[in-house]
């Protein structure tokens, strides 16, 4: 699921990228000190005003140092690092830590809570 999440980002497919999130008004997205967003529509709007404002993200995305801890059979917590890199030069343009809580749904694993913080 995380691989498909990054592949969608790198392909400029916002809908595919957002497919990783549970389509629910209760889905939570916390970005650093920017506040709490609830629901996929609010998450979409944030990306359209940020990384996708030019149509596709300028940076490529990858995840590293991913640790997955099951929380029973239908939930898991994931800790990791995201890395953004310039598509042409490969130079790192940003990085940070994330913690997501996943729920197993009929559609597969989906993010129900995402807390992402950029590194200084």
Structural class: alpha+beta
Largest sheet: 6 strands, mixed
Rg result:
14 Å
Number of strands: 6
Query: First CA to last CA: what distance?
Result: 27 Å
Low-pLDDT segments, ≥5 res:
none
The gross shape turns out to be: globular
Query: Helical region count?
Result: 3
Q: Which range does the strand content fall in? A: over 45%
Which CATH C-level class is it? Answer: Alpha Beta
How much helix is in the residues?
Answer: 10-25%
Order of secondary-structure elements: HHEEHEEEE
Strand order of the largest sheet: 2-1-6-5-4-3
| Average pLDDT rating | 94
> How many individual domains?
1
CATH topology: Nuclear Transport Factor 2, Chain: A
CATH architecture: Roll
């Amino acid at each position: 699921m995380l691989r498909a999440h990054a592949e969608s980002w790198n392909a400029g497919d916002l809908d595919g990228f957002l497919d990783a999130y549970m389509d629910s008004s209760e889905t939570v997205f916390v970005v650093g000190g920017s506040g709490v967003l609830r629901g996929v529509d609010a998450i979409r709007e944030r990306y359209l005003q940020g990384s996708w404002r030019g149509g596709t993200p300028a940076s490529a995305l990858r995840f590293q140092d991913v640790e997955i801890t099951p929380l029973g059979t239908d939930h898991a917590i994931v800790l990791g690092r995201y890395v953004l890199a310039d598509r042409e030069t490969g130079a790192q343009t940003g990085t940070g830590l994330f913690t997501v809580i996943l729920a197993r749904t009929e559609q597969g694993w989906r993010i129900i809570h995402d807390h992402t913080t950029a590194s200084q």
